[in-house]
Amino acid sequence: MSPDNPDPERHADISDDRPAPPRPSAVPPPSESAPPAGSAFGSVPDGSAAVTAYPSGVELTPDEPRRPVRAVATVLGAALALAVLGAPLGLLWAAFAPDTPVLKTAEGAIYAEPQPEQPIAADGWFSLLGLAFGVLAALALWFLLRRRRGPVGLLGGVLGALAAAPVAWQVGRRVGLATFDRLLESAPAGQAFTKPADLRAGGIDWLGHVLPVPHGNLLLPAFGAAVTYTLLAGWSRWPSLRPEPGPASFSWVSAGTPAPTTTPEPPAPGAAEPPRG
Questions:
Q1: pTM for the complete prediction?
Q2: Is residue 56 part of a domain?
Q3: Domain assignment present for 40
Q4: Is residue 111 part of a domain?
Q5: Under a CB-based contact definition with an 8 Å cutoff, are residues 135 and 226 in contact?
Q6: Are strands 109-111 and 100-104 parallel, antiparallel or unpaired?
Q7: CA-CA distance, 1 to 181, in Å (whole number)?
Q8: Residue 246 is assigned to a structural domain of this protein
Q9: Can you tell me the distance from the alpha carbon of 191 to that of 184, in angstroms, rounded to the nearest whole number?
């Protein structure tokens, strides 16, 4: 065997022991590769590119343009829904507020007691229920109308509570009113019966005989709705008052910096050293 004519079998053995040359990769380097789905480019202090990962399925789209017609429709719809809910509020008030005992006389009905407490209790029950109604209305609008949080939700809640209070008053005071009117006309003098609950600390004034203006404890539902909605807006963690998608995790990895290698752990004190050479 000579250097000019090497052994072919020996040449094959040597070539088999050598590592295969690296194949060219079809994947472009990290600096030229496209960002993964659900990520956005950022920057790090050394000026190299970085990637910020966001949860998959989240689309970062600009805010929709404001549409006044849709906002007005939302306010009117919320106000109408709360006004309709004033009817069950009135029935609830009539169930809790006590009736006032009266006596029939030749001039009409008079209180059976010199200073009855039932009218005061009726006003108190309406005030408490009205405040609770306003608080619940604000909470419902805050969580149901997430895309309309802000002036639209606040205006809808206040207007709806203002409309629900007179509805509750008129519905509640008419429970048992027909029986009272019948006894007031047909009962003999000296007969005792009861008068249904009514408000003395609130009512409606007409401005120019055209515009109704509520006053007294009829304003408490709107007051509760305004205060609750304002507190929710003040305690919101989002500047826009709407839930915003937050990054699930951040990864600031430089494109030109290799990943750090893991340092092997030192051997235990009693472990034998590996053979050298």
A1: 0.63
A2: no
A3: no
A4: yes
A5: no
A6: antiparallel
A7: 133
A8: no
A9: 10
**Polymer length in residues for the chain:** 277
The one-letter amino acid at 237: R
268 Cα distance to chain centroid: 57
Residue 166 contacts residue 212 (beta carbons within 8 Å): yes
Which run of H or E residues covers position 186?
Answer: helix 177-186
Q: What total number of domains does the chain contain?
A: 1
HSE (side-chain half, CA atoms, 13 Å) at 165:
33
Nearest Cα residue to 130 out of 98, 90, 159? 90
pLDDT in tens, 16-73: 455 555 555 555 554 444 445 444 444 444 444 444 444 444 444 444 445 788 999 9
Q: What is the largest CA-CA distance in the chain?
A: 146
Q: What is the 3-state secondary structure (H, E, C) of 256-270?
A: CCCCCCCCCCCCCCC
Quote the domain boundaries for residue 160.
68-234
- What is the Cα–Cα distance from 189 to 179, expressed in whole angstroms? 17
For residues 273 and 277, give the distance between their C-alpha atoms in angstroms, rounded to a whole number: 12
Q: Cα 224 vs. chain centroid, distance in angstroms?
A: 17
| Chain centre to alpha carbon of residue 187 | 55
